[in-house]
Automatic annotation (TrEMBL):
Record-linked SMART domains: 6PGD (SM01350)
Mitochondrion found in the keyword field: no
Function of the protein: Catalyzes the oxidative decarboxylation of 6-phosphogluconate to ribulose 5-phosphate and CO(2), with concomitant reduction of NADP to NADPH.
Protein name as annotated: 6-phosphogluconate dehydrogenase, decarboxylating
Pfam family membership, one: 6PGD
GO molecular function (one): NADP binding
Species of the source: Streptosporangium sandarakinum
Region (Disordered): 298-319
Length: 481
């Protein structure tokens, strides 16, 4: 019998997806540029299902049933193009090349257009959940044609995570839509992690709590509306003790956060689209700040507040519990902002590139398998399933209520952070966004006035139609232009 699907690229992600497919009873043809990975996979896990080991792309293609499905799981970038060029000439019209790597959605658009000319369906697919997700059930975000989803969807839904019996996989939209939403997913993940880190830092610095005590707090938070994978693993990381020194591991890890680039892509694209994703952007910048050793060393001796911390002292048990609760509310509110901004970007991208992405369906498949999986995503799904979906998630009844409850504590937390000299860029920018959207009038009016003064850039008036300019260097009367 022929294999249902082929996987090329058998590093951790490819090997685990191949095993996941085989464990679900699908015969999988497997191939890797260097043969040793194929051998290792068969030797260690060959007993888990039906694998067909292939030495060459030709062998892999020959092993597949029609229409052929080839899943590419190689290093993103030039290697993906190289592999496409190896396989495309071996395929026939109607066959499918699926790229599950972390490709930039513009590359996916380019590849899809080129392969469409040759009659081949190119399916750029976001896969989230890391190594473990790939094996046990990831969240899968396939782009590409509807037709390709008909042939591919059932297989992908089979191996995806399930929440309430619903697979965490759905057709996202044409060409680059899948990789686009995966990119924004990662941007949201950056923001989520930054907010968690700030919450930890405040409890640590303002209240002087130990990592183990903070782990207890996160464990408690994980039982409420914040319940999520990232909150859960935060407790685990904070509880970890370094074997070599006996200190909390978090205290011996170098405080320089790295990045592979998807957060940066998200912000770059948001700038192109003109969508304010300040929460995601601050998270990306916070990582860069952490990595700027030289800047940080140069600035180390700048003065801070005289008598930090500003939070309740050790004896004030009630005050401290209240502060912890304030931080929890600030975290939840800031998280709502970050997700609202991410979903705004998806809506803008969908309109710009003509994808028709369904945000409710997306929230549904992010409930499981992926890194940002959370109870919270069910609330987002509900918000988008309303008869008239909200313009922004902030005004969906459930979130509007949560923000209403959170806003006072949120302000106290940002004020405490500022007073204590603890950086909280994520919390602060989220609050500023909230207040900006709420504001009846913004000082953008003054910015327009300045632009008109130095550059005759003109302005509109709020009391009547038209475009105006003040003769700043003349008699300062206003003319209509
Ligand atoms: P890597 O990104 O480390 O890529 C290694 C694989 O790429 C190997 O199989 C390697 O073959 C192959 N490869 C590299 N260059 C070429 C080339 N020119 N021609 C053919 N094959 C090549 O593997 P991962 O498993 O970590 O990730 C695979 C993809 O999945 C990446 O695009 C990654 O961004 C994405 N991804 C990764 C996640 C993760 O958590 N790691 C999560 C989600 C997506 P060889 O053995 O011969 O060197």
């Amino acid at each position: 019998t022929k294999a249902r699907i082929g996987v090329t690229g058998l590093a951790v992600m490819g090997a685990n997806l191949a095993r996941n497919l085989a464990r679900h009873g699908h015969t999988v043809a497997v191939h890797n540029r260097s043969r040793y990975r194929t051998d290792a996979l068969l030797k260690e896990y060959g007993h888990e299902g039906e694998f067909v080991a292939c030495d060459t792309p030709e062998e892999l293609v020959a092993a597949l049933e029609r229409p052929r499905r080839v899943l590419i799981m190689v290093k993103a970038g030039a290697p993906t193009d190289a592999v496409i060029e190896e396989f495309a000439p071996l395929l026939e019209p109607g066959d499918m090349l699926v790229d599950g790597g972390n490709a930039h959605f513009l590359d996916t658009r380019r590849r899809e257009a080129a392969l469409r000319e040759r009659g081949i369906h190119f399916v750029g697919t976001g896969v989230s959940g890391g190594e473990e997700g790939a094996l046990l059930g990831p969240s899968i975000m396939p782009g590409g044609s509807r037709e390709s989803y008909e042939a591919l969807g059932p297989l992908l839904e089979d191996i995806a995570a399930k929440v309430d019996g619903v697979p965490c996989c759905t057709h996202i939209g044409p060409d680059g839509a899948g990789h686009f939403v995966k990119m924004v997913h990662n941007g949201i993940e950056y923001a989520d992690m930054q907010l968690i880190a700030e919450a930890y830092d405040l409890l640590r610095q303002a209240l002087g709590m130990s990592p183990a005590e903070i782990a207890d707090v996160f464990e408690e938070w994980n039982r409420g509306e914040l319940s999520s994978y990232l909150i859960e693993i935060t407790a685990e990381v904070l509880r970890q003790v370094d074997a070599a020194t006996g200190r909390p591991l978090v205290d011996v890890i170098a405080d320089r956060a790295e990045q592979k680039g998807t957060g940066r892509w998200t912000v770059q694209n948001a700038l192109e689209l003109g969508v304010p994703v300040s929460g995601i952007a601050e998270a990306v910048f916070a990582r860069s700040v952490s990595g700027h050793t030289e800047l940080r060393r140069a600035a180390r001796d700048l003065p801070g507040p005289a008598d930090a911390p500003q939070a309740p002292p050790a004896g004030d048990r009630e005050g401290r519990a209240e502060f912890v609760e304030d931080v929890r509310r600030a975290l939840y509110a800031s998280k709502i902002i970050a997700y609202a901004q991410g979903f705004d970007q998806i809506r803008a991208g969908s309109a710009e590139y003509g994808w028709d992405v369904d945000p409710g369906a997306l929230a549904t498949i992010w409930r499981g398998g992926c890194i940002i999986r959370a109870v919270f995503l069910d609330r987002i799904r509900e918000a988008y399933e309303q008869e008239s979906p909200p313009v922004t998630l902030l005004t969906a009844p459930l979130f509007a209520e949560a923000l209403g409850l959170a806003q006072e504590p949120w302000r106290r937390v940002v004020a405490t952070a500022a007073g204590a000299g603890v950086p909280a860029p994520g919390f602060s920018t989220a609050l500023a966004y909230y207040d900006s959207l709420r504001a009846g009038r913004l000082p953008a009016a003054l910015v327009q006035g300045l632009r008109d003064f130095f550059g005759a850039h003109t302005y509109q008036r709020s009391d009547r139609e038209g475009t105006f300019h003040t003769l700043w260097s003349g008699d300062r009367t206003e003319i209509e232009v």
